[in-house]
Amino acid sequence: MLIKARAIALALLAGLAPAAQAEQRITWLMPEFALAESNAAKLPARRGMAEPMLDELKKHWPEPAEHVAVLANVKRSWLMIEAGEPACHLVSLRTPEREARAFFYITHLVPPAQLVALPEVMARLPRNAQGEVGLNQVLQSAQLQGVLIDGRSYGAALDAQLAQRPPPSVALYAPVQFGTKLLQMVALGRGDYTIEYDFVLAAQREQLPLLQKLETAPIQGASEMLMSGVACPRNDWGRAVIAKVERILGRREALTQTQRSFEAWMTPQARRFYGARMDAFLAERLRNAPH
Fold first, then answer.
1. The domain spanning residue 197 has which CATH number?
2. Which residues form the signal peptide (predicted)?
3. Which of 11, 27, 157, 184 could form a disulfide with 87 if both were Cys (CB 3.0 to 4.6 A apart)?
C-alpha cells in the first residue's frame, strides 16, 4: 500500500509539473516596430511601445522566471496564443473576436490607423469635407491596390470595411517586420497605399529616410480611439500571467511611464488631435491605481 501511495503521489506531482514549469518561462511576443539596437542606443528616450513594458515586467516580476522576447508577426503570434502556448503578446489591439480567445490587460489608448501613400497617390484619393479618405471607394477602385498585413486587426471599424473589399483590391503579406516592409513597398511605388499608425511611421522614418516622402490621412468612419494591451492565452496559465501583468503595469509609476514612452513617438498633429482623450484616459486610471 505504501509503494502504491508513493506511486500515486509521484504521478500527481508529475501531472502538476508542466503547468508549474510553463509559468517559469514566459515568451513575450513583440511587435516588429521595435527600434533597431543601434538606433535604440542613440535614442534611449524614444524606444518602441513594447520594450519599456518588458523592462518593467522583468524588473518587478514576483518570482524567478525566464523572460524570452521574440519578434513575431501577428499571424504567428495569434496562432500561438490560440494554441494555449505559454506566450503573451505585449502590444495587441483588443477586439471582441480576440477577447473571446485571450485575456487582456489594456496598456494604451491608441489613435486610429491612417492611410499612408505617396503624395501623388494621395492627391487621387476620394476625400470628404474633413479631409478623411473614403476607404470603401478606394477598395472598389480598379486603379488602386493596397498592401496590408495578413491576420492583423486594424480596429473594428476598419476591419469591417476591409471585410467587404473585392479580393484583388488588397495584397496581403505576413512580414516579420511590423509594417516596415509594406511602408517601404509603398514608398517605392510597389503598392499604392497601406494602413498604418502614424507613430509606427514616425519610428521607422528615423531608421529609413526613404519613408520621409510618405504622407498620412485619416480614414472616414474610423475616428474612434483603440484599446491596445498585453494579450495572454485564455487558459489557467494565461489568467495567472495577466494578473501579474496587471499588478505590475497598473501601478501609478508604470501607467505614467507607459503613456510617456508612447507619446514620444506621436507626431505633433496626432498629439494635438488626440492628446486630450489620452490624458483623460490616463487620469481616470491613475485615480484608483496603487503606487
1. 3.40.190.10
2. 1-22
3. 27
Do 142 and 72 fall into the same domain?
Answer: no
Q: Cell match 469635407: residue?
A: 129
Q: Say how many C-beta atoms besides its own lie within 10 A of residue 88's C-beta.
A: 27
Q: What is the domain count for the chain?
A: 2
Residue 161's CB is within 10 A of a number of other CB atoms, namely: 20
Which runs of consecutive H residues, i.e. helices, occur in the chain? 2-24, 37-42, 50-60, 74-82, 96-99, 119-122, 135-140, 156-163, 180-187, 198-205, 236-249, 252-263, 268-287
For the chain, the residue count is: 291
Rounded (5°) CA angle 98-103-105: 105
Bridge partners (DSSP) of residue 193 are 117, 146
- Kindly report the pTM of this predicted structure: 0.75
Burial of 217 (C-beta count, 10 Å sphere; 0-12/13-18/19+): middle
Query: By three-state DSSP, how is residue 137 classified?
Result: helix
